[in-house]
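Lab meeting, item 3. Inverse folding demo.
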């Protein structure tokens, strides 16, 4: 039947007995499979947020680092935020050091890549990281 229609007989799945086959163009079938794979890759990673405080304790920072590691291991991107309020805006250097300490905690466990570098925005500092 496939030769009569100038098409190919493509085996869709071999896990069942008898195997499932379909009469279609093989090139078209491969194109759709690759398209599904690309779509699955792009939608799998989400942007998760971790918010640090200006006066965060070391133990709370470790807890947030563990949750960031969990997100990174799943393949998600992590946005690290440190909002500054009032007089804290004058102590930007201290806030940068807090984020550097946080990054060191994460990099002890797994290597990370900075997707967006540490940047001072209107309300504080932000940074986006992913797993290498």
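The presenter then showed the designed sequence:
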């Amino acid at each position: 039947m496939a030769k009569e229609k100038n098409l190919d007989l493509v085996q869709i799945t071999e896990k069942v007995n008898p195997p499932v086959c379909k009469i279609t163009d093989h090139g078209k079938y491969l194109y759709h499979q690759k398209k599904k794979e690309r779509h699955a890759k792009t939608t799998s990673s989400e942007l998760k947020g971790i918010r640090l405080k200006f006066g965060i304790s070391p133990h709370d920072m470790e807890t947030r680092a563990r949750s960031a590691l969990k997100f990174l291991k799943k393949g998600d991107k992590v946005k690290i935020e440190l909002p500054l309020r009032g007089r804290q805006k004058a102590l930007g250097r201290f806030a940068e050091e807090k984020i550097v300490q946080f990054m060191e905690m994460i990099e002890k466990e797994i290597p990370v890549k900075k997707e967006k570098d540490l940047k001072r925005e209107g309300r504080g500092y932000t940074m986006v990281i992913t797993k290498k």
